[in-house]
Design a protein that fits this description.
Chain D: Pfam families: ABC_tran (PF00005), BCA_ABC_TP_C (PF12399). The complex is a heterotetramer. Chain C contains eleven helices and two strands; from the N terminus they run ααααββααααααα. Chain C is an all-alpha fold. By secondary structure, chain D is an alpha/beta fold. The chains are: A alpha/beta, B mainly alpha, C mainly alpha, D alpha/beta. Chains in contact: A-B, A-C, B-C, B-D, C-D.
């Protein structure tokens, strides 16, 4: 008599069978994959005699896709190269790529899938701090291993994460020292997009300027992400006349910011500007003519002239086209698979605990940025480099620091 | 007793519809899905609270709020604040400069727990706040807008702007709120580890039960005189006003109710997913939740739940398999549903599903409608692209 | 801080100009919307994407010019503006005939359907132009500043946008209030049935109006490349601001839109100068909403018996 | 609400004095005085744009007056909110039948039953025997007893007009205002409606706007002619019809 009743009769068993079928399929594939449990894999990871599966977790869609595409490409390049050279412990790397879709909960969901369903041996991924914060508890709970490529605010150190980008002090302190010395800068104007990385970076910068350099911060400001009106800001800069503008503006705001600086007559012949948020990637949108003569602080620039980098740039362009550009994070992404390979081989195992234990002290002499070494605190020793931006959008390195020890919890800067 | 049966379960037909849903989410999913997929369903079901609320205030009340994320977010934040305080005991935060406060506060040089956070040490206060804070905000917005007869698209745009403001505020006050990152790494609820598979299962059932409770409450409202008034208002607001009703108060009520539902969803989200971030407060998630309701059927409480599940599954599936296609699909789906199937899945079910079933299963038996409800019911006309103005058989 | 009086004056002048320039940007973005929402009652959530269409058009034309007619580079921008108008307008025409025309009298549904459209358009941009932001190479005369005195720098792109805004506003005014078409638009808005009865092709009027609104959005997008960046989601950033501007002004009033763009821009610009950027945004939006609560019909609205 | 008839016959139930309203400078109602007595059927006529509907809007609170007072049974309506005015005992029918088309006749009437008018009252409203009895009583009065379970959009135009009148009767108002109650009705329906009005004016006052002079003649106790927002003439139908000013502006056409 009642349709709902018959609906239940007919729909229920079908739903059940469907899901049951899916489940058994999943289980079958899982078991066939995890058949091997030798010394190299005692924790049920997705490792067979000939393959090892890793995950890639970046945003391929959404607002962050712009930034994360480079990391995806660089990680792939490294993995392909490792596979071509015989893989890791005799196994070829297979990649499961997941899309975080610029959405933090999606990142968390996908991280869970990679770790719990796919049992990947390592994950290369995340870009924003927010996405890393979202997946971090999952990596810690499931004891996964994440290689995180972005320069970031520090204040974090997890057993389950290797940070291949710089933490804030590495990027900021040396560059501030340099600009203070080189330009005799005493007054600074700090500004950034409104989220944790710029805010934390500026806090560190302020402490350093006030306590170490004996300078003065004459302005500190944050604009909402995506803001495109910087007219009032340019006037404030003119009013305060700082020796240096220290900028950490990101995303679409970046383009508007530099275009409007130029339009307001704030150019490098009148104003020194140092940014910690402009890489080759951002430059594409901004256009070199808008930033000519400004300085950028990164650990890597595409124009670095050393054999490692020349080879890396050539290979990257061969794979992704001659117009592709390589920014700091892209290079850091490239380091991830290589660092992992070195640690796995040192440990003789894919087990996360063993790989983590083997990681500190791992050195990479073939890194495009030159030389890196994994610190006890899971960050990398690296150099800070300052480049002057040219009218054609390329970066000319004008200063290179010594290797800097990573210090994610800098005493006196918090 | 009879009365409750009619108003809560919607007679035999409604009761069976509800039973199917209950069996699906309480029995089938937990049995058929592994813990990973099940916790995904759990997450989707938290969005369903919002969609159910939207059926009440948009489908029946004609009030399209594009800011339901506000309430989902506030509910979630209230719960997350409590959980974060519990996760920030002095022992586990001893590496901080100020142990015992949430980690992001420490990063922002805050050395003392802010006033706003103090009461969230208490679980009972938190439970109260989860409901009260969003509902009170909805009340304020509702009074301000509806008493002054700001309606229709104006209301939609204003709620959207409020969602934008709240997002900027949360992001800007990162010492208080965790900023863009949100409040992360939530661990225990009164000492009970919410990250275990077993506790996740329990939370899933709590969530599902609460959702069914909200559907029941929604039905109670819709089958009451208030439900008829809502629809009457949507179609003939003047007539209702000049029949002696304070139209605004009904709109405020249903808007607050939808806000409270959303808030419960948000709190359950924080519990199940283990974090809360401003990305749930803004404009995009708010409109996505409208999609859920639209696809499921804006006039159907059960449809909203199915719509949420279906769209969310689709999102996960397509963004895994064809990330490029996903936005085309989502956008296209939305356009098609709004233009050609304004009553969504529920409408299709009424017009085609039933017929198909009857031919298939019952042969020549005729479908009857329960006699008591006949006064409210009428067949849904799906042929016209206009959203059907009739009250559904099973709201 | 050592700031001389003359410098302070210069900065005041520049700040004043900045307010004007924000006003012009806001107005240019809101104009198209004001026509569509105000005259047709249609909520076009994809308005921002039509803006983006204009911006990408400019980008494409800039690239083509550089490649094939490098000598024309200084002048391509005028051509780009016209092309942006035509392409965005044509797209609007198409959208109106395929989608909007089926949804009149269902304003809330139009809102939702156009939001779906905005998703589709954003992904289309991504598929065609890639996810990265692109920058159109600007002719040199638009970039940089004009310095009437030592201390004053007036952005040339600001001046350019101002001129463009003035042109668009005047043109639209003339079209709406002096042309036969404008008369038809206003007649249709006031009484659709009657207009049809006296022989106005209301369908055509609707389509024209919508296309015009989208075309103006395209122009705004072209102008916007001189100030900001062009990416798949660039347009969606402005949609809330733009809608609030129109609603705040009073939906059916072009003068209202201008007044509201002016007050919002000045408030924002002034608060940005004295507070931080984020707070300025929050305060401006909140103020607009508070005022809307007191005056739900917006700044300018006519009282009529309904 | 329903005061006993003739008890204080001297005092009109509705006294409008000096009422004015303007829309952007246009005076739709200008310094108008109008009185409605108890148990009186008072008809307002006038050419289009005379301000008839605006007058009803002003009384029922839909439009706020710029100046003047509207006294209803000792209460000042011009300061009250719409629903309070209704609750005070003023019911109004709109020009186009305004009913809930997807509800049944029964439900339409029930909606106007003056109980459960507040949020929680409506939430816990019960369809008691009392309610049913009242609905059936009113339905009989408006000739719709047989059609209680019919969906309202299936009614004829005239029946819809009756239904709306019935919805007002449910509230048992002391003053009933009808805007063109017989528009679109057949001749026999008009006769029935006139009969209905005469019946329901027992015990309450009725203010009617109407164009149909035959109908007006059959119901009006008193007629007021409005022109350009002011009273042009007032009196019995015969008196008004013979008034030269009225003939000039209205009837003479």
């Amino acid at each position: 008599m009642d349709s709902r009743l018959t609906g239940a009769k007919h729909l229920l068993p079908r739903r059940l069978t469907l899901s049951a079928a899916a489940l058994s399929l999943m289980a079958a594939s899982v078991f066939s994959q995890f058949a091997v449990a030798d010394a190299a894999n005692t924790t049920g990871l997705a490792v067979t005699d000939t393959t090892v599966t890793v995950g890639q977790l970046h945003s391929a869609t959404g607002t962050m896709a712009i930034s994360e595409t480079g990391s995806i490409q660089a990680e792939r390049l490294a993995i392909d190269q490792i596979n071509a050279s015989g893989g890791i412990l005799g196994r070829q790397i297979e990649v499961i790529q997941e899309d975080g879709a610029s959405d933090w909960p999606t990142f968390a969901e996908k991280a869970k899938k990679l770790l719990e369903s796919d049992k990947v041996a390592a994950v290369f991924g995340c870009w924003t701090s927010a996405s890393r914060k979202a997946v971090l508890p999952i990596f810690e709970k499931d004891n996964g291993l994440l290689y995180y490529p972005t320069f970031y605010e520090g204040l974090e150190q997890s057993k389950n994460v290797i940070y291949t980008g710089q933490e804030a002090t590495q990027q900021i302190l040396a560059s501030l020292d340099w600009i203070a010395k080189e330009k005799g800068a005493k007054t600074f104007y700090l500004l950034g997009s409104d989220y944790i990385w710029p805010r934390t970076s500026m806090k560190i910068a302020r402490k350093h300027i006030e306590n170490v350099l004996g300078g003065k911060v004459v302005g500190e400001e944050y604009y909402p992400l995506g803001n495109t009106q910087f007219g009032s800001l340019t006037n404030k800069i003119k009013l305060k006349k700082p020796d240096v503008v220290f900028a950490a503006v990101v995303g679409g705001s970046n383009v508007a910011f530099y275009k409007q600086l130029k339009a307001a007559g704030i150019t490098s012949d009148k104003q020194t500007l140092l940014t910690i948020s402009v890489t080759e990637d951002e430059m594409l949108g901004i256009g070199g003519e808008n930033m000519k003569g400004f300085y950028s602080s990164m650990k890597y620039f595409q124009t670095l002239d050393n054999p490692n980098n020349n080879k890396f740039v050539a290979e990257f362009k061969a794979k992704y086209g001659k117009d592709s550009v390589i920014g700091d994070v892209t290079q850091a992404g490239y380091l991830g698979p290589w660092l992992w390979k070195a640690a796995v081989e040192k440990a003789g195992s894919f087990d996360v605990n063993k790989v983590v234990a083997a990681s500190p002290g791992i050195e990479l002499t073939t890194a495009p940025e030159g030389y890196v070494k994994v610190h006890e605190n899971h960050h990398l020793w690296s150099k800070a480099r300052i480049a002057e931006i040219q009218a054609d959008g390329t970066f000319t390195v004008v200063h290179e620091s010594e290797l800097i020890e990573p210090n994610p919890f800098p005493k006196g800067y918090q | 007793m009879k009365n409750a049966y009619e108003s809560l379960l919607g007679g035999k037909q409604g009761a069976i519809g509800l039973l199917v849903l209950a069996v699906l989410i309480l029995v089938v999913f937990p049995l058929a899905l592994d813990s990973f997929r099940l916790s995904m369903v759990g997450k989707y079901l938290t969005y369903a609270f919002v969609a159910v609320g939207l059926v009440l205030c948009w489908g029946y009340g004609g009030i399209l709020s594009l800011g339901q994320g506000i309430f989902f977010g506030l509910g979630g934040y209230c719960m997350a604040m409590f959980l974060k305080l519990e996760a920030s005991d002095p022992e586990s935060t001893k590496i901080q400069s100020t142990p015992g406060i949430p980690d992001f506060m420490d990063w922002n040089q805050i050395t003392e727990l802010p006033m706003m956070w103090q009461p969230f040490h208490s679980f009972s206060f938190t439970l109260l706040a989860v409901l009260a804070v969003p509902t009170l905000l909805a009340l304020v917005i509702g009074i301000a807008m509806f008493k002054r007869r700001v309606g229709d698209v104006y209301f939609s745009i204003v709620t959207q702007a409020i969602a934008a403001i709240l997002t900027i505020l949360i992001i800007g006050q990162q010492g208080l709120t965790g900023g863009v990152n949100g409040i992360t790494d939530l661990r225990t609820l009164n000492g009970w580890d919410i990250r275990d598979d077993s506790s996740k299962l329990i939370l899933y059932f709590v969530n599902a039960a609460l959702l069914i409770g909200c559907v029941l409450l929604g039905r109670f409202v819709l089958t009451s005189k208030l439900g008829r008034l809502l629809m009457a208002m949507r179609d003939k607001e003047e007539r209702v006003r000049f029949s002696g009703y304070d139209v605004a108060s009904f709109k405020i009520f249903v808007f607050c109710l939808a806000a409270a539902f959303s808030a419960i969803g948000g709190a359950m989200f924080a519990l199940q997913v283990g974090f809360m971030s401003p990305s749930f407060v803004g404009i995009v998630p708010s409109i996505e939740m409208v999609i859920f309701a639209a696809v499921g059927g804006r006039m159907s409480l059960l449809g909203a739940v199915y719509g949420t599940l279906l769209v969310s599954f689709g999102k996960t599936y397509f963004s895994e398999s064809f990330p490029e296609l996903w936005l085309y699909l989502m956008g296209g789906l939305f356009i098609v549903v709004v233009m050609y199937f304004p009553n969504g899945l529920a409408g299709l079910w009424e017009s085609h599903g039933r017929k198909w079933l009857s031919r298939f299963a019952l042969g020549n038996k005729v479908f009857g409608q329960s006699v008591v409800k006949a006064r409210v019911m009428s067949p849904v006309k799906v042929a016209t692209p206009q959203p059907s103005r009739e009250l559904e058989t099973t709201p | 801080m050592d700031v001389s009086l003359s410098e302070f004056g210069a900065i005041a002048i520049m700040q004043g100009f900045n307010g004007l320039s924000v006003f012009c940007v806001l107005l240019l973005m809101a104009l198209g919307l004001a026509i569509i929402f105000g005259q047709m009652g249609v909520i076009n959530m994809a308005h921002g994407e039509f803006l983006t269409v204009g911006a990408y058009t400019t980008y494409v034309i800039s690239s083509l010019t550089l490649q094939y007619f490098p000598a024309m580079q200084p002048y391509y921008f005028f051509f780009a503006i016209i092309a942006a108008f035509v392409i965005a307008g044509a797209l609007g025409w198409l959208v109106e005939s395929l989608m909007i025309s089926k949804l009149y009298h269902r304003p809330l549904d139009t809102l939702l359907a156009t939001w779906g459209l905005s998703l589709v358009m954003q992904q289309a941009f991504r598929s065609i132009f890639g996810a990265r932001e692109v920058g159109a190479e600007m002719p040199a005369w638009i970039m940089g500043s004009w310095a009437p005195s030592e201390a004053i720098d007036i952005p040339r792109n600001g001046l350019f946008v101002m001129g463009l805004t003035l042109l668009c506003t005047v043109t639209i005014f003339l079209m709406l209030y002096r042309s036969r078409w404008g008369l038809q638009v206003r007649a249709t808005m006031q009484n659709r049935v009657m207009s049809r009865a006296v022989g106005i092709n209301t369908k055509k009027v609707d389509r024209m109006t919508f296309a015009l609104g989208c075309g103006v959005a395209g122009v705004a997008g072209a102008a916007f490349t001189t100030i900001g960046s062009t990416g798949p989601t660039a347009g969606s950033l402005y949609i809330v601001d733009t809608f609030l501007t129109v609603v705040f002004g009073g939906a059916a009033s072009l003068v209202g839109t201008i007044a509201s763009a002016f007050s919002i821009a000045q408030a924002q610009s002034l608060m940005e100068f004295f507070l931080s950027g984020s707070m300025a945004k929050v305060l401006t939006l909140s103020a607009v909403i508070l005022i809307l609560m007191v005056r739900p019909q917006g700044l300018f609205s006519s009282k009529v018996r309904k | 609400m329903n005061s006993p008839a003739g008890f204080q016959a001297a005092k009109p139930v509705l006294s409008i004095e000096g009422l004015s309203v303007s829309f952007d400078g246009f005076k739709a109602v200008d310094n108008l005085n109008l009185y409605v007595d108890r148990n009186e059927v008072h008809v307002v006529i006038g050419p289009n744009g005379a301000g008839k509907t605006t007058l009803l809007d002003l009384i029922c609170g839909k439009t706020k007056a710029t100046a003047g007072s509207i006294d209803f049974d000792g209460r000042e309506l011009s300061k009250m909110r719409e629903y309070d005015i209704v609750r005070a005992g003023v019911g109004r029918k709109f020009q186009n039948p305004s009913i809930y088309e997807n509800l049944t006749v029964f439900e339409n009437l029930e909606m106007s039953y003056p109980k459960g008018r507040k949020v929680f009252g409506a939430l816990f409203f019960k369809r008691s025997a009392e309610v049913i009895a009242r609905v059936e009583e009113v339905a009989a009065e408006i000739f719709l007893s047989e059609l209680l379970d019919m969906q309202a959009d299936l009614l004829s135009h005239g029946q819809k007009q009756w239904l709306e009148i019935g919805m007002l009767l449910m509230q048992d108002p002391a003053l009933l205002m009808l805007d063109e109650p017989v528009a679109g009705m057949s001749v026999s329906e008009r006769v029935q409606t006139a009969e209905l009005l005469n019946r329901i004016s027992q015990g309450r006052s009725v203010l009617v706007i109407e164009h149909d002079m035959e109908f007006v003649k059959s119901i009006a106790h008193r007629v007021t002619v409005l022109h350009q927002g002011t009273v042009l003439a007032e009196g019995s139908m015969e008196a008004v019809q013979s008034n030269p000013k009225v003939i000039e502006v209205y009837l003479g056409h």
